Task: inverse folding
């Protein structure tokens, strides 16, 4: 038996998926959620094998919700998202269904999922790790879209917090996580520095060191530190190490000669 969760703010869409799933006795719908906040809680509670997930939802969108899940399950998108836009994510999701979709199209998506998880199906030694890898690639692609450019969603214990990008002072590597530093606090997110570097606007955020990205509007002074490095003094008094390569990037962004 495979566990499925439906996450969609449109009740009619969820009801249609449930009706189509009546044909699949090996699938048990363990939760139906109306937004990403409830979706995160349900995924933590039930640990499903499959998500039917809308992209455009209130509070946080489907991509942002997936970022909050440490080991995401397989995902089938059920969305009215523009077909040309969703094509960019096609390779990294199990499938996507453009609303309104027929039972026949739904069956194709289910066949694709079941062919991956049934005994004897060709898949990696660790199917869960494969799903997580696909979803990570999906999220890195989604993060480059304009809809995701102005904010970052994080988990704050049992709460979900939305950080506006201009509020970020700097970001630094912290083992498997990154620390996002703002005036109101410090937050951890399971996301790579390289992903942040691609997502954040390059005219404002510069990777000054392999472990640090800084909002240049918070820099007040730059001083030589040694032969290869510099020190950036921020408005809040924090001093950050700037590598030789990072200094060259800063000079370019700040228009220094």
Result:
């Amino acid at each position: 038996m495979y566990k499925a969760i439906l996450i969609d703010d449109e009740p009619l869409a969820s009801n249609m998926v449930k009706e189509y799933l009546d044909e699949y006795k090996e699938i048990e719908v363990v939760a139906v959620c109306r937004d990403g906040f409830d979706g995160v809680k349900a995924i933590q509670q039930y640990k499903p094998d499959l998500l039917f997930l809308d992209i455009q939802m209130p509070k946080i969108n489907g991509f942002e919700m997936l970022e909050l899940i440490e080991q995401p399950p397989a995902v089938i998108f059920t969305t009215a998202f523009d077909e040309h836009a969703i094509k960019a994510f096609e390779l990294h999701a199990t499938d996507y269904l453009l609303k309104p979709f027929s039972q026949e199209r739904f069956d194709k998506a289910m066949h694709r999922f079941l062919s991956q998880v049934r005994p004897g199906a060709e898949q990696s030694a660790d199917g869960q790790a494969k799903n997580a890898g696909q979803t990570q690639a999906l999220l890195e692609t989604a993060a480059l879209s304009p809809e995701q450019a102005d904010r970052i969603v994080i988990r704050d214990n049992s709460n979900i917090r939305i950080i506006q990008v201009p509020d970020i002072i700097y970001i630094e590597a912290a083992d498997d996580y990154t620390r996002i530093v703002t005036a109101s606090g410090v937050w951890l997110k399971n996301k790579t520095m390289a992903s942040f570097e691609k997502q954040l606007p390059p005219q404002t955020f510069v990777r000054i060191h392999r472990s640090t990205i800084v909002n240049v509007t918070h820099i007040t002074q730059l001083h030589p530190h040694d032969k290869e490095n510099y020190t950036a003094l921020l408005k809040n008094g924090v001093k950050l190490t700037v590598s030789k390569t990072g200094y060259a990037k800063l000079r370019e962004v700040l228009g220094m000669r």
